[in-house]
Design a protein that fits this description.
Number of strands: 2
Order of helices and strands: HHHHHHHHEEHHHH
Strand order of the largest sheet: 1-2
Number of helices: 12
Shape: globular
Largest sheet: 2 strands, antiparallel
Helix content: 55-70%
């Protein structure tokens, strides 16, 4: 080893300064090119997965118990965030991860849906009523999922999310064991309606942020419908709303990640809440929501997210995405109304 090192140092000493500089620049260029290629590969979103097959594989049964589809899907969504090509990049501090912004935005969209479902599991889906005891594993998993998504050390985001995965798997294992009644999943219409309320709120916010890509003046409707309503600080009758130019593509990919996660969650819901949906004749409504969300996953042929005006020469990808998100949100609102009926 020492002999090889001496030979290398001798060869390096014999190279003149100009050649050394060229060699160093060539190595830097190769490194940058490799980082760009790897970054492009890491920026490709994961493919869809089969919710039913995933549940059967995790539960190791051809007839998963009620709640197994939703729980298995939640687990696999979290695993995908951590184990996809490039791993979890939102908290990377080294190239190429630190250069990426679309994939971290996509990851955040998925993470928000994972957090919302984790909270729904802890708050209502695993409890028979408001006075019942919450599941201990879910009580530990939920705050871990809400850990800062950009923390890279002491502790890292990935480390906390893997701890949450361990608790979710514990709940899944007890749920699948029919001899242990201490882990439950209650597929009731009111539980589903509560979770859909959270989804609707998220989609409504995304729709507004996407629509604001071109800038809008909106009438202030914050207190509409309540003459006695008050707010902390006064606002004008009209509001100027515009998403900053550098954040337009981030909002777009956050919406894309949100929709990707919701497609799988709704497919799982269709399995676990099948009886409740059939009773309300609402299965078709769930499928229509999935259909609207699937349109958000179409291939993007442009090398960048375009931000043309509403009827301008160039397209506006954010407005197209806002259209699909708004239609899905409207369908969710209709579904919630349907589920509230006796």
């Amino acid at each position: 080893m020492e002999r090889i090192e001496r030979i290398w140092l001798t060869l390096w000493d014999n190279v003149n300064s100009a050649r050394k500089l060229k060699l160093v620049l060539a190595l830097i260029c190769l490194w940058l090119l490799a980082a760009v290629v790897i970054g492009i590969y890491w920026s490709v979103a994961p493919d869809r997965f089969d919710v039913g097959a995933q549940a059967r594989a995790q539960i190791q049964s051809e007839t998963p118990v009620t709640g197994a589809y939703t729980t298995a899907t939640l687990i696999h969504l979290t695993e995908t965030l951590l184990d996809k090509p490039g791993g979890y990049v939102s908290n990377d501090i080294m190239p190429p991860g630190i250069w990426l912004d679309n994939m971290p935005a996509w990851e955040f969209g998925v993470l928000v849906q994972v957090r919302d479902m984790g909270r729904a599991l802890r708050k209502s889906l695993s409890r028979s009523q408001s006075q019942s005891t919450e599941d201990p594993a879910l009580a530990k998993a939920e705050p871990l999922l809400h850990f800062d998504h950009r923390n890279w050390i002491l502790p890292s985001s990935e480390g906390e999310y893997r701890k949450a995965l361990k608790q979710l798997r514990d709940y899944r294992q007890r749920l699948a064991d029919t001899t242990q009644p201490n882990a439950q999943f209650y597929a009731r219409a009111d539980n589903l309606r509560d979770w859909l309320g959270d989804v609707s709120t998220r989609l409504g916010s995304l729709s507004q942020r996407l629509s604001a890509s071109v800038g809008q003046r909106r009438i202030n409707t914050d207190l509409a419908g309540d003459s006695a309503g008050r707010q902390a600080t006064e606002a004008g009758d009209e509001l100027e709303v515009k998403t900053p130019w550098l954040e337009i593509d981030n909002v777009f990919y956050e919406a894309r990640g949100t929709a990707w996660a919701l497609i799988h969650m709704l497919e799982a819901i269709e399995h676990d809440f099948g009886d409740a949906l059939e009773k309300k004749n609402a299965r078709a409504s769930v499928r229509q929501i999935i259909r609207e969300l699937e349109a958000t996953q179409s291939t993007i042929w442009s090398p960048m997210i375009l931000n043309g005006s509403e009827f301008g020469f160039l397209s506006n990808h954010s407005l197209v995405m806002a259209s699909y998100i708004s239609r899905a949100n409207a369908a969710i609102i209709d579904l919630r109304d349907l589920l509230s009926q006796g």
